[in-house]
Design goal:
This protein is of the alpha/beta class. It folds into two domains: 3-139 and 230-263, Rossmann fold (3-Layer(aba) Sandwich), CATH 3.40.50; 145-224, no CATH class. The chain has helices at 67-75, 117-125, 145-157, 164-186, 201-205, 212-224, 233-242; strands at residues 3-6, 14-18, 24-28, 59-63, 81-85, 102-108, 128-139, 246-253, 257-263. The chain is globular and about 50 Å long.
Length: 270
């Protein structure tokens, strides 16, 4: 049962996996159409697949950035796990009507960074086999007033245009403040009624166990992306409906983002 995990950004690269004799194998891909410098991913990239492939499943991790190098170091030892650098809008997989390659595809934190998020969603759904399942997570519009009014305008007009070294410097003191806030205020109040009165309490409480590097990466990610969409529930749900998926389930994630799951009908022809 092959599965596909989709990462974020990329330009060009190599399909890496295992050859017929257990040696690393490579296949050059054409240059993708997404612009902007590749970013390094945290070392944990690829670890969600650490158990995959060991029981015979075939899994593919696709990302559009140089982060595939880190992912390959983490899971490249698995004989059935392959790391692929590719464009989400032109993935190197079968996408003929009713003849997709995957039983399960999931995309976390990717689609909302595309110029046309729903186009990326449709591209992935076309990679599903009939009866296959898609799972995705996207930024939500609801309960993100601070992002809409302050962070997003600054990101679009200023920080996403800065050289990465300068942006990393700017992000550092912001991360120090956020880290101190979640550790010094939100963490001590967990389980108390007073926490419910604080802004973004569900989301910021979820960061209280993160170390500084993890919280720094979150701050940096919110500042660096050239594109970011914040989707209302009905918008996200509409993707699944227009793609003809069934058994659709949507749920909150920290009251400021959406998770969605749907299944391609067994007799689907797209």
């Amino acid at each position: 049962m092959p599965g596909l995990r989709v990462g974020a950004r990329a330009h060009h690269g190599t399909i890496r996996g295992r050859g017929d004799h257990g040696r690393p194998a490579g296949l050059r891909l054409k240059r993708a159409s997404v612009s902007g410098p590749p970013r390094r991913a945290p070392p944990a990239l690829g670890r969600p697949l650490a158990g995959a492939g060991e029981d015979g499943e075939r899994v593919r991790l696709a990302d559009l950035s140089a982060a595939v190098e880190t992912a390959f170091r983490n899971i490249g030892r698995l004989p059935n796990a392959h790391v692929i650098q590719a464009d989400i809008l032109a993935p190197p997989f079968a996408r003929a009507a009713g003849k997709g390659a995957f039983d399960f595809i999931y995309s976390i934190g990717v689609l909302h960074h595309l110029p046309d998020p729903e186009a990326g969603f449709r591209s992935l759904v076309r990679c599903l086999r009939p009866g296959g399942t898609f799972f995705g997570w996207v930024y939500g519009y609801e309960n993100n007033a601070l992002v809409h009014r302050v962070i997003d305008p600054v990101r679009r007009r200023v920080t996403s245009r800065l050289p990465p070294p300068l942006l990393r410097t700017i992000a550092y003191p912001m991360a120090v403040v956020m880290h101190a806030l979640v550790k010094g205020v939100y963490r001590p109040l967990q389980g108390r009624a007073a926490l419910q009165r604080l802004p973004a309490h569900a989301y910021l409480s979820s960061l209280t166990d993160f170390n500084f590097r993890q919280n720094y990466n979150i701050v940096f990610d919110h500042l660096v992306a050239p594109t970011a969409f914040y989707l209302k529930r009905e918008e996200f749900e509409g993707w699944f409906q227009r793609a003809g998926l069934e058994a659709v389930e949507l749920s909150w994630r920290n009251q400021n983002s959406w998770r969605g799951r749907g299944r391609l009908p067994a007799a689907a022809v797209r």
